[in-house]
Amino acid sequence: MKTAILTDSTAYIPKALREQLDIHMIPLSVIFGQETYQEEVEITANQFYEEVRSKGELPTTSQPSVGMFLETFEKLAKDYDAVVTIHLSSGISGTYNGAVAAGNMVENIKVYAFDSEISCMVQGFYALEAAEMARAQKSPEEIIARLKEVKKSNSAYFMVDDLSHLQRGGRLSGAQALIGSLLQVKPILHFVDKMIVPFEKIRTRKKAVNRLYELFNEVASEGAPMRAVVIHANRPEEAEEMKRDLEKKYPHVEFMTSYFGPVIGTHLGEGAMGLGWYKR
């Protein structure tokens, strides 16, 4: 059985890596006024942050339609018998449910939908694992079983630099945002039960980043082989510096850098930083 691996654009897997591992991608979109852009296809992360700064307003976001999923599955059916399709948390988007609905409609290919219950490159880790297994000719059932195993240690924490994005996106009340900005609060967020929820409130950016290091150390100090990623919202130099620091301390961990692209960046805002990982 030949199995395709599909994920959505919010995994933010670099195009070259997607092509190398034969990972297919379906895009979510951002909408500025009357203009709709498919992220990772029609707008890059850099272009997005420039657009937000120049316009001074946040876009809205939209998920792939069931029809787009159906069309994608039908194309894959020409070359594959099955598809493992991996998506951002169903608690923050209907993308996974769209994949399930289309999977129930399509013929000639069996669809195995997986809810990552997270997003960004930490979601991408599932796609990397799945792609490596598909290349080794593992069955879809074996791949799904491994993804469920990964989920036991898959985790991410992220620090928000500008509370106004969370407030404008309906994730934070105006009063909370005002108090937070006055006190220089940099909230650390994480996923719980598929939803983004506050983990801790930290007073400064430096302390918030140090707290991300501490949270990572709690797991990495055990010495087990791991994959980890530093994620940034238009702060590539800071992300590379964090990656170098961590690589020195944890030689048993395979580190990457990635980014908060347009859809997730709409809600977190420029300057956000994150750290995610799982045990290999």
User: How many separate domains make up the residues?
Assistant: 2
Q: What's the mean pLDDT score? A: 92
Strand order of the largest sheet: 10-9-8-13-11-12
Given this structure, which CATH class of the largest domain is correct?
A: Alpha Beta
CATH architecture of the largest domain: 2-Layer Sandwich
What is the CATH fold-level name of the largest domain?
Hypothetical Protein Tm841, Chain: A,domain 3
The SSE string, one letter per element, is EHEEEHEHEHEHHEHHEEHEHEHE
**Which secondary-structure class do the elements indicate?**
alpha/beta
Rg calc: 19 Å
The coarse overall form would be globular
Unreliable stretches covering 5 or more consecutive residues: none
Q: What is the makeup of the main sheet?
A: 6 strands, mixed
Termini Cα gap = 25 Å
What topology emerges from the helices and strands here?
Blueprint: E1 3-8, H1 15-21, E2 23-26, E3 29-32, E4 35-38, H2 45-55, E5 60-62, H3 66-76, E6 82-87, H4 95-105, E7 110-115, H5 120-135, H6 140-151, E8 155-159, H7 163-168, H8 174-182, E9 186-192, E10 195-202, H9 205-220, E11 226-232, H10 236-249, E12 253-259, H11 262-268, E13 273-279
Parallel strand pairs: 1-2, 1-6, 6-7, 11-12
Antiparallel strand pairs: 3-4, 3-5, 8-9, 8-13, 9-10, 11-13
What would your notes on this structure say?
This protein is α/β, with parallel strands linked by helices. It has two domains: 3-28 and 63-151, Rossmann fold (3-Layer(aba) Sandwich); 155-279, Hypothetical Protein Tm841, Chain: A,domain 3 (2-Layer Sandwich). It has eleven helices and 13 strands. The chain has helices at residues 15-21, 45-55, 66-76, 95-105, 120-135, 140-151, 163-168, 174-182, 205-220, 236-249, 262-268, and strands spanning 3-8, 23-26, 29-32, 35-38, 60-62, 82-87, 110-115, 155-159, 186-192, 195-202, 226-232, 253-259, 273-279. The strands form three sheets. The chain has a six-stranded mixed β-sheet, sandwiched between helices. It has a four-stranded parallel β-sheet with strand order 2-1-6-7, with helices on both faces. A three-stranded antiparallel β-sheet has the order 4-3-5, covered by helices on one side. Strand 1, helix 1 and strand 2 form a beta-alpha-beta unit.
